[in-house]
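Two proteins were folded this term; both appear here.
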Amino acid sequence: MAWDDSSRDARPAVLISHAWTGRGEQEEHRAEQLAELGYVGFALDLYGKGKRGTSKEENAALMQPLLDDRAVLQRRMNLALDVCRKQKVVDANRVAAIGFCFGGLCVLDLARTGAEVAGVASFHGLFSPPGNTEGRQISAKVLVFHGWDDPMAKPDQVLALAEELSTVGADWQIHAYGNTVHAFTNPAADDPDFGTVYDADADRRSWQSLQLFLAEIF
């Protein structure tokens, strides 16, 4: 958790849900960036006890059980939200959540549960619905940053997500970046065959848009 301790005033908080590797430097850096903007950055650990994968196989082994049991994933996300709200420097009524890759799916699921968060933002996330939230109203505003050529979330899935969000009356936005694939915010992503490549323009544009989104919802 990162915040500017020059003030003791409670302030809005932003949960940060990690990619399939587990919480690491990328998520912690985002927490520090958010602290510099005047928020509390809360980089959650969905796997628990600092577990991290060191290969695609290990990452998949950590992520798959939560994809297979979305109810468990949703309970952990809501627990992280509850813990964040209890921190003295956090304004419990003003909390949002952002997520990267697998974390994007996690924050969308948090919204799908009807959690009372001001907004959620997914960066190159996965869109598959969980199967246990149909018809549930989404109170959180939803912002999605998506690489149009992402092989892990193809255009038909983008359209399906838009339809899902519209059906439940959500306030949603989808920003799609052309000639952009998965993991575009991760400077270490450089595997074209796997579909993960960093894109400095999409990274910059999405972060700027996030700041506008947070200013609006808070």
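Next, the second protein.
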Amino acid sequence: MEEDKELDGLILKYTAALKTLETEISILLQDYEYKNNYNPVEHIKSRLKSYDSASKKLISRGYEVTVKNIEEHILDMVGIRIVCSFLSDVYEIVRIIESSDQITVHDKEDYITNPKDTGYSSYHLNVYVPVYLIDGVELVAAEIQIRTVAMDFWASLDHKIMYKFKGEIPEEIREEMQNCAKDIHRLDQKMLNLNKEMQIIKDDQEVI
């Protein structure tokens, strides 16, 4: 009974942290669009990891399934994914988030520069978000993933393949996934170059 009450309290904090994170990111991006006349975001997804998913993750890491262990060892219970059009937008969004007074970045992983073994590419920010409760302010852990549309498409397929093979991917499939990831990276580079060319043409037209 006490464990259930603790879990309810933890979910309350996570829900509040997600709302705070969504609001702060929305404000930052609206301000950026207003000042730059450009919206770098295609879409945003947010979620709270389920108790079952958190439990499986704890077990896989050798921890007992408790509310305390969820809070201490599962740092992506609160998650937001920001998907943008171009590679340059990813790093611009990282800069925007790092400038926030409400979001504290405590760790980051650039899987674009250093992809995972499967070829997975994305930029991860591990952050703390302030949640204002009756007893005071608590910092709640959350994860922000930032990637391009092409990376998001590949990551979706990667997730399905990992699930199908329960993480034990045959070598020939893994090699093909890595090749596809390289194709995705080349596509992102081509789209980035195309965007730069379009911007040059636009700027020249405005001068005329």
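The two ends are 73 Å apart (CA to CA). The domain at 2-207 is CATH 3.30.460.10 (Beta Polymerase; domain 2). These notes refer to the second protein only.
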